[in-house]
Amino acid sequence: MATGDVRYCSRFPYLCLKFTLIVYCTIFWLFGAIVLAVGIYAEVERQKYKTLHGAFLAPAIILILLGVLMFVVSFIGVLASLRDNLCLLKVFMYTLGVCLIVELTGGIVALLFRNQTMDLLNKNIRKGIRNYYDDLDFKNIMDFVQKEFKCCGGAEYMDWELNEYHSCSAPGPLACGVPYTCCITNKTQVMNTMCGYQAMKLNRQAAQQFIHVRGCTNAVIIWFLDNYTIMAGALFGVLFPQFLGVLLSLLYVTRVEDMINECVDVLLDGEATKPEIEFSSVGCCRCYPGEESTA
Question: Model's pTM, two decimal places?
Answer without folding.
Answer: 0.73
